[in-house]
Amino acid sequence: MLAARCGHEPAVSSYTRCVPRPPRDRFDSSRRPDRGETPFVRELRPQLRIFPTTLWEYPSQHYDSPAMRESQKSARREHDAQPRVLEIEGDAVVGAGSMQGEKDYVGATPSWIIWQLLSRYTREGDTVLDPMCGSGTTLDVCRDLTRTGVGFDLNPQRPEIKRNDSRALPLKNESVDFVFIDPPYSTHVEYSDDDRCIGKLDSGGADHGKAYYRAMEEVIREMHRVLKNRRYMGLYVSDSWRKRKGEPGAGSGEFMPIGFELFAIMRKYFTPVDIICCVRHNKKLEYGNWRKAAEEGNFFLRGFNYCFIMKKVEDANESKSRS
Ligand SMILES: C[S@@+](CC[C@H](N)C(=O)[O-])C[C@H]1O[C@@H](n2cnc3c(N)ncnc32)[C@H](O)[C@@H]1O
What we know:
Elements: E1 55-56, H1 66-78, E2 88-89, E3 92-93, H2 111-121, E4 127-130, H3 137-145, E5 148-153, E6 161-163, E7 176-181, H4 210-226, E8 227-237, E9 240-243, E10 253-256, H5 258-267, E11 271-279, H6 288-296, E12 304-311, H7 316-322
Parallel strand pairs: 1-11, 4-5, 4-7, 5-6, 7-8
Antiparallel strand pairs: 2-3, 8-12, 9-10, 11-12
Bound molecules: S-adenosylmethionine (SAM).
């Protein structure tokens, strides 16, 4: 049974326990609350701050948004002496503003990654584009940080996301202040039936990923076209590994270095700013049978995603040399 509601329901009367935590830069997994002992009750997520290093880690897919913190504050004022309980459904603290995007959209981006990028590289009122916006995580982070989010996707999950192939963006040249993108990492997620979905193109396989990388270059070229000069973009992606069919035994897999391949493509258009390593907290990484298979098969489970940060630095000579 779930306990008291947070979020936009300040009129609750049964807050019974308060578990605020001082903000921490890094997540300490040994201090993770034990779901078995305290069902449905977990500590507040650490407050987000700008991470100072190139290793990024946060214990949850979502952060608590200012909207939620405000509603918690007003609830506390109403029940001031009463400690509080947070109500958890899966990974999300219940209540409007408590999550960004949709936790059930397979492949949704961890919102804190987008928060880090927008906090560093945009200002209030800037226009932020996500050409593969999916469940709208980028739009929600824009709401929290008072940026204007513009989202497209072939499989839009919300009315404010327009259906569009990101290889041809319906935007003017140099019209946005920042672009974030989390593209399909080859074929491991079935996003939609749309034949134009880049998630149907294999980054390994018979053509050695040519079709996938060609499609992604078209997307990157469009991102470059619509981004204002001297502004930034972020691309979040993982490499991929799969076992080759019919080849038993250790070492019989195929590694697809998607991150570095996309980085090489982006370098044709943008200037690199930095490469971030984002620690993945995918539950599957903890499955005993997955870990055993990785040890016995001598391959690696994906422990991190890249976040590539690039800048558009355009002068007349550069654009001529590319065309
Ligand atoms: C990793 S998901 C993005 C998730 C999103 N950032 C979120 O948080 O929900 C990749 C997205 O790319 C979209 N996509 C694939 N090919 C596309 C294309 N050619 N044009 C636009 N969107 C595309 C898929 O529909 C999917 O939603």
